[in-house]
Amino acid sequence: ESQGALERWHQTFKTMLKKYCYSTARQWDEGVPFLLFAAREASQESLGYSPAQLVFGHAPRGPLQALKESFLETQSSNKMNVNEYVKCFRSRLRFANKIAREHLKKRAEGDEKQLRPKG
């Protein structure tokens, strides 16, 4: 089953690359970093979070967000020390992991119900 998921991902990524090439008239290899970033920051239905959120503990901050913040100067002025940051980061990761596991469990239970024979 894991091979099937990987093959679906490859098919999705190939479709994204085709659309990128047709809409921008650029070579496929130029779009790979942008498309991977987009895929990693997109929330996954089965997890309830994006892959980047589960790995890094927060939503990714892309180039447009950084540019917007530089124009609006919305960056937080209260900096926390390293120990506070690590504690907060660990807490966010544990919470996100817990929620993701719950989403996967519910999704698996739903899939299992659909596969049961009726009658």
From TrEMBL:
InterPro entries: Retrovirus_Pol_polyprotein, RNaseH-like_sf, RNaseH_sf. One of its GO terms (molecular function) is nucleic acid binding. It comes from the Eukaryota. PANTHER family: PROTEIN CBG26694, PROTEIN NYNRIN-LIKE. This is Gypsy retrotransposon integrase 1. The gene is Nfu_g_1_024769.
